[in-house]
Design a protein that fits this description.
By secondary structure, the protein is α+β, with helices and mostly antiparallel strands. It folds into three domains: 59 residues, Arc Repressor Mutant, subunit A (Orthogonal Bundle), CATH 1.10.10; 208 residues, BirA Bifunctional Protein, domain 2; 43 residues, SH3 type barrels (Roll). The protein contains ten helices and 14 strands. Helix 1 packs across helix 4, helix 4 crosses helix 9 and helix 6 runs antiparallel to helix 9. The longest helix has 21 residues. The chain is elongated and about 80 Å long. Bound molecules: biotin (BTN). The site of biotin (BTN) has 21 residues, from helix 5, strand 5, strand 8 and strand 9.
């Protein structure tokens, strides 16, 4: 096989051409002309793609058609699906990693240009809030971390995870045609069962955020019978909820686009009106009896919503309002 030319187009460029003409064929010479490389270079890239699980139908005098694609996470396919504003984003796609949040932090520490995204098919030490384990087998779910260098004060970041949460809900609602709920501060739910969780971690220099990792675990395609132990009762995947598997790579590309746009809006500071509207739409706690576990203390009351800095407000039975910056929330039975 000829050696790879330094001018070869990235594989995703070929995939995008084929995806844009999915029902027809794209000739080899058109691909070569469009990408500004030789037909040999195009062919080399298609060989690389075949090795990743893509199949191409080739018909003499007509050209190529995309005939099969991997259903597992694939960086080239995600890049091909990305909307134009997100093209060029670095996507690190791994078979296995300890935690995508940890990998993103390590890459940030080496000075890698942000933003970038780290994805893995499975995590060996997936982490949730409060030191919990995030069950992360290779089963069609999404483990993804976004790395940023926001250069803002920590106070300016207080609403970050909630803002990202409503954006993820909106994306899921648009993509799946189903209405998820957001349980303060970081859980995405369907019918009271957890479909996703977010973990934001930042390193702070003096009074500025040096870098920030936004991690998201989303149960996309895992089958209902795959949850171990009591997760079967508490967890749910998007495919289980909508009754059909999702196109994981297309979904991931849409999610990346949404998160990047949400990040830009957040940095501009131009997000509070939209946030208030989306929070009303997705908040599952408002008006409900809840309990907040803060360390070993349990506080019961009715959820009132959130304060300006993103804290949870509850009213206890004596009519006093309490504010929580952190804690574990459970929904109580309505009396
Ligand atoms: C939670 O609900 O407590 C948050 C869960 C966050 C899990 C994601 S999976 C991708 C990223 N890597 C991790 O180790 N954790 C986050």
């Amino acid at each position: 096989m000829p050696s790879a030319s330094p001018n070869s187009p990235p594989e995703w460029v070929i995939l995008r051409e084929l995806l844009e003409n999915e029902s027809g064929f794209v000739s080899g010479s058109r691909l070569a002309a469009k990408l500004g490389v030789s037909r040999v270079a195009v062919w080399q890239q298609m060989e690389k793609l075949r090795a990743q699980g893509f199949a191409f139908k080739a018909v003499r005098s007509r050209g190529y058609q995309l005939a099969g694609r991997p259903t597992t996470l694939n960086a080239a396919l995600i890049a091909a699906h990305l909307a134009s504003r997100a093209r060029g984003l670095q996507i690190v796609c791994l078979n296995e990693v300890d935690s995508t949040n940890d990998e993103a932090a390590r890459l940030l520490a080496t000075g890698r240009t942000a933003p970038f995204v780290v994805l893995a098919r499975r995590q060996t030490r997936g982490r949730g809030r409060l030191g919990r384990v995030w069950h992360s087998p290779d089963n069609g779910n999404l483990y993804i971390s976004f790395a940023f260098r926001p250069r803002l004060t920590p106070e300016r970041m207080q609403m970050f995870t909630l803002w990202m949460g409503v954006n993820v809900c909106e994306l899921v609602a648009n993509f799946c045609g189903a209405q998820p709920g957001l349980k303060w501060p970081n859980d995405l739910l369907f019918d009271g069962r957890k479909a996703g969780g977010m973990l934001t971690e930042a390193r702070i220099d003096a009074d500025q955020i040096r870098d920030l990792v936004f991690g998201l675990g989303l149960n996309v395609n895992s089958p209902a019978n795959a949850w171990p132990g009591d997760l079967a009762r508490r967890a749910i995947s998007l495919s289980e909820h909508v009754g059909t598997p999702l196109d994981l790579n297309r979904f991931t590309a849409a999610l990346i686009g949404r998160v990047l746009l949400a990040y830009e809006r957040f940095i501009d500071g131009d997000y509070l009106t939209v946030f208030a509207e989306l929070w009303q739409r997705y908040d599952v706690l408002r008006g409900k009896p809840i309990a907040v576990l803060e360390g070993s203390e349990r506080h019961a009351g009715t959820a009132l919503g959130i304060g300006e800095e993103g804290s949870l407000l509850i009213r206890d039975e004596r009519g006093r309002t309490h504010r929580f910056r952190a804690g574990e929330v459970t929904l109580e039975k309505e009396k």
